[in-house]
Amino acid sequence: MGGDGHAEPLATSFEVTVDRGEGDQVILLVRREGEATRIAFPRRLLPAGTHEGSVLRVTIEDRPDEEAAARARVERLLDRLLQANRSGTAGPSSSPAGGPDKPAGRPDEPAGGLPDSGLPE
Q: Which one of 28, 54, 55, 56 is most buried, counting C-beta atoms within 10 A?
């Protein structure tokens, strides 16, 4: 916590060496505090020009503002689902995929009048 009572974001940074590529993944070698750890990482997320032997700095930062926003979205979704359930517009269906008139679709598609979550896919 900062001196003014506000929480400061937590963060850590460390260096990794690109060990090798394996298909669409690369193996990053983390050497920290006398230990070596390997991490499989998507090649497409690396900076252009990265190659075996490249040394990169990785920063991982806690994002309490984003966490709070995600919690608020989930709370709103749960509230809407509970409201829909109480009003009888939503509930378990005895037929698969939400009913005989609804073709089987992706599990995250709105079914039976349920609102879309608004979360990015």
A: 28
